[in-house]
Amino acid sequence: MTLKEFILSRVQVFFVLVTLILFGSAVYGGIYAPQQELHYYHLFSPIIIAAACILPTCVTYFKKEPTPLQYIIRQIIELILIEVIVMFLVSPPPKYSGSEIKFYVGIGIMILIIYMIIEVVSWLKKYKQAIKLTEQLKTFQTAE
Amino acid sequence: MYEVAVSDILYIETVDNKSFVYTQKNVYETKQKLYELEEMLKEKRFLRISKSMLLNLMKVSSIKPALNSGFTAELISGEQVVITRKYVADLKKALKREKV
């Protein structure tokens, strides 16, 4: 992957993240702080958090081809950095009914779920690309 | 000294500055460098898929996603070789018959 392709993939991930954070916030807030009123400026939160989450994803950019182990290690580092950044950015809403620990554990689980969804989506995209390449290969071989 | 038919070659790999030609049954060492072989075989449907490997596209049965950023090519022999991300764009071009 070239740097340009990597940046483009980060932009795609950003928009997926905004959607998933918005969805996750709606579900989580609906359960634990349903009476909380939001203002228009709160709509910026998913954008800010998604932008902040994109920064640590740079650790998964490799100039040289990574080994599967190196790739997995970088992914774990990436997830930890995202968890830390989000925990730093968010705080329990004033009308939150549960304990602070419960809030942060919930946020941590939500980040993990969103991260897994992003990984599955990326894998499916790559899988689709591999199927397309195999089809092109068959056409290439039969044309010879 | 052996003569190997180009159509029998699965892939050519360089290990410790030595080039090896792999067929379904045998492995042959050649004195030629990988870049020389690449130049010689580019019209024969061979493609560079990593820093150290030339692949005969006619011997690939499928392409699968790899855990890291590249892809894996499964050969008709059942062997799997890695297509590094740097050469994925060249593979796409080659399959569309564009000049690599």
Short recap of the structure:
The complex is a heterodimer of chains A (144) and B (100). Chain A is built from four helices and no strands.
Task: Report on the architecture of this protein.
The complex is a heterodimer of chains A (144) and B (100). The model of chain A has no long low-confidence stretch (mean pLDDT 86). In chain A, helix 1 packs across helix 2. Chain A has four helices and no strands. Chain A is elongated and about 70 Å long. Chain A is mostly helical and 144 residues long. Chain A has one domain. Chain B has 100 residues and is of the alpha+beta class. Chain B has a single domain, classed as LytTr DNA-binding domain (OB fold (Dihydrolipoamide Acetyltransferase, E2P), Beta Barrel), CATH 2.40.50.1020. Helices cover 16% and strands 41% of the residues of chain B. Chain B is built from two helices and eight strands, in the order E-E-E-H-E-E-E-E-E-H. In chain B, the strands form two sheets. A five-stranded antiparallel sheet of chain B has the order 3-2-1-5-4. A three-stranded antiparallel sheet of chain B has the order 6-7-8, with no helix packed on it. In chain B, strand 7 and strand 8 form a beta hairpin. The model of chain B has no long low-confidence stretch (mean pLDDT 90). At the A-B interface, helix 3 and helix 4 of A face strand 6 and helix 2 of B.
Q: What is the structural class of chain B? A: alpha+beta
Mean pLDDT of chain B: 90
How many structural units, i.e. domains of chain B? 1
CA(first)-CA(last) distance of chain A: 29 Å
Task: Quote the beta fraction of chain B.
Answer: 35-45%
The CATH topology of chain B is OB fold (Dihydrolipoamide Acetyltransferase, E2P)
Distance between the termini of chain B: 32 Å
Largest sheet, strands/sense/barrel of chain B: 5 strands, antiparallel
The counted number of beta strands of chain A is 0
Q: Based on the coordinates given, report the CATH architecture of chain B.
A: Beta Barrel
- The domain count of chain A comes to 1
Query: Spans of chain A with pLDDT under 50 lasting ≥5 residues?
Result: none
Oligomer: heterodimer
Q: How many alpha or pi helices of chain A? A: 4
